[in-house]
Amino acid sequence: QEKSSRLSAALFGGDCEISLDQLYELLKYAALGKCHNATQPSWCRIYHQSHLAGVVVIVLHEMSQLHFYKFYLQFKHLRKVFQHRFTLSPSANFLASLYGEGANPKPQNTAQGLTFTSSDRMPKNSYLQCDPIIRKYGEKKRGLTSYTLTLEEQKKNDYPIKGSPGCQGYVYTECDQQRTDSSPLFGLDCEMCQTAKGNEVTRVSLVDAQGQCLLNELIKPESPVVNYRTRFSGITKKMLLPVKTRLPDIQTRLKRMLPRDAVLVGHSLNADLQALEMIHPSVIDTSLLFARNEGRRFKLKFLAKAVLGKEIQCEQKLGHDPAEDARAALELAQFFIEQGPAKVAELNLEMLLTTEKLTEVSQNKAALQPQGCRVQKQLNEPPHLSKPCFLDCLQVTGRKPLLLGRQELDSSGLCQSNLSTSNKQILQRALEDVPLSTFSIIQFSLGPEYIASHLLAGLCEKVRSKMTDMLTIYAGPFEESFCLKSVKKEFGRCGPIQSLTVVTETYQPYVCIQYEVLEAAQIAVESLNGAEVAGSCIKVQRPVTAAMLDCDVLIKELELDVENEGVIYVAGLKKSLTETDLQEEFSQLKDLETLFLPKDLQSGKHRNCCFLKFQKSQSAVDALEVINGWTVKGSKLRSRNALASGHLWRWIWQMNHSSGKQGGNILHEKMEQLSDSEQDLRKKVKKLDHHIKKLYRSLKNNTLCIVLFPGVN
């Protein structure tokens, strides 16, 4: 929640266009905090960045602001939930910028600009003294008892503790015998599936100090499985169907198998013991043993390769093998104990991880570069900046970004089209994987058949036409000799007029008025229909066309839009009034937060209307009652709830003033083609909105979520 009234004023005041670089700033700081020279965005502020659970960017491929307003009613969830909207100024490809093609260039094979110093530039002793492993354990070799977690460490790292409130019903292993440096080590690992109850253990493995597998059992969970997480657990529905073994059976077997002085070893072993609902007093946790700065942890897969030279959790295999993971954790603990902290520190694991990540990313980019990357830069170009790109920095910190989309986005930043992938399949993957990732980019697409240039041109013309009709009213009939000046003055009190023409094709003259803002046209319809103007009792209505049949519904939804909450429109102001004058006039209104006085975007002159934003919705309702009929400097004011937020107001102006309209025959042909596919398009957009709703509801609390309409250029 942004707390700045200045930003709030900018949001509804029309000054709400941001650049790709500004979006990049926000995402980088949200994801990295103060790591890798990330700083607070220049245009807004994130409070308590460390509390963010994750960042999710939903990219609606090749859709633009045009699609949002054309299908405003279909985007029911999107417009009701997302509070802040910004116009993204035309710029380079968004995804490319995250990979370093925009705000930051591609990284080279060297790790430039990262905040570490390689060991060959530092005296060995000095380097070792800085290593978190040496700071924690010293340089001398010790026995295994020096590396078991203390009771305080177990409490801090969420281990089940005997007698603690959250562990009622947990089974105690009763391994109470005094530990010595010759006590036996056992590796333990579990795999979990998501059930209606939460995470439940479905497989457990136990290995002894020689690496022999003593136990490798499937377990039938108590509750129905809702997500097998096969990609990680290796568990399938078919595997669990014949299984009769339950958790109490495994608890009994483990309790019987473990000697009284057993030391359990595992990687983040607390999660395994919690899943097993068991308490064991003596543990070595390899995720804590191989210490890192700032509480970060190495992954088991990395440690196995860097320390033991073993490949585990290979992508070719279906899920993790708990026996393999238990054995790897056990061997890591044995290596640490036998070699001692100094030898482990000399491996310089932090440096190895950084080099591995950057090399992997660079190799991926080099391998895929010839296969149709949209970006034209070559790998051998020198970098413009010394900083690595954003997603590379994420990978270096161990937070591999999740990239899902119809175009098979990968860690190289290149796109390989896979048109057979549906939005539904992408959604299913996202629902499973997004909660496990700290930074995710999910890309949905309407499909190439809906983004052809001729269809977009027709769509644009339809939106332009509907917006024009919503800004237009017809008033009449008037007497033959009516005073046009009086009519213009009366209707001008509703808001700024774009054009006014007399309709003479009718038996009696009518007036066609096109306003610059939606609120003005709506006030004219609401307040002047049936009124006496220029000596005639007139009717005021909008044009009646097929596209305008849902106008009343659209007006109602715009009024309820979250961006218009607490915002009212006031018209009938004298153009000579300044912002200071109005601040003084409206100062008595309760909870007034911001006043915005629109200007003509060409001349820079003030309009005869303004917008008022209140801190509370009820205060805005109360202000409407006070302001309607209020006289300021001789002008009678009219007001209503706001309909068009700043960016919509600006967009309408741009549409009305843009040039280069299509020729009649060409446009007619395009409109016919569009009508054929528009019904399908409407259904697709509605389904897309439903996908966003499902994904949004699956996110953890404190997740920053951004939906991007990047457009086609």
TrEMBL record:
Pfam families in the record: RNase_T, RRM_1
Keyword set includes RNA-binding: yes
Listed InterPro entries: Nucleotide-bd_a/b_plait_sf, RBD_domain_sf, REX1-like_exo, REXO1/3/4-like, Ribonucl_H, RNaseH-like_sf, RNaseH_sf, RRM_dom
Gene Ontology, cellular component aspect: nucleus
Domain RRM: from-to ranges: 471-545, 566-644
Coiled coil feature spans: none
Keywords recorded for this protein, A-Z: Exonuclease, Hydrolase, Nuclease, RNA-binding
Keyword Hydrolase: yes
Protein name: REXO5 exonuclease
SMART domains hit by this protein: EXOIII, RRM
Gene name of the record: Rexo5
Domain of life: Eukaryota
Single Gene Ontology MF annotation: RNA binding
SUPFAM superfamilies: Ribonuclease H-like, RNA-binding domain, RBD
